[in-house]
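If your schedule permits, I should be very grateful for your opinion on a structural question. The matter concerns a single protein, recorded as an amino acid sequence and a row of backbone structure tokens. Could you please explain, in whatever detail you think fit, how the structure tokens follow from the sequence? I set the record out below, with my sincere thanks for your time.

——
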Amino acid sequence: MKTSYIYLLFFSIILSFSSCQDKDDQEADFSKIREIAYNYLDDISKETIIGDWRKATVRKMGNGNYEVLFNTSQDALLGPILLEIDGETREVIKVYPRN
């Protein structure tokens, strides 16, 4: 019985380490995606971003691409800046129109 608990404990520790690694990998991936999106913007757009661009919202889409959303000082008038980045080539493939 003690052996079963030891195996269970060991297995749960291994799973928790692997899930932490996945989150770290995902955050590193999202950081790179944010940087690609930010570098694509022109200087005027960059100046309107509110807060730290390194904390922009990144969402992985069902098709493997990413959406990056930058909140700006003009959100009430135009809406946020939203870009789509190809998951494989890591290139900006679409800049969504602002209202």
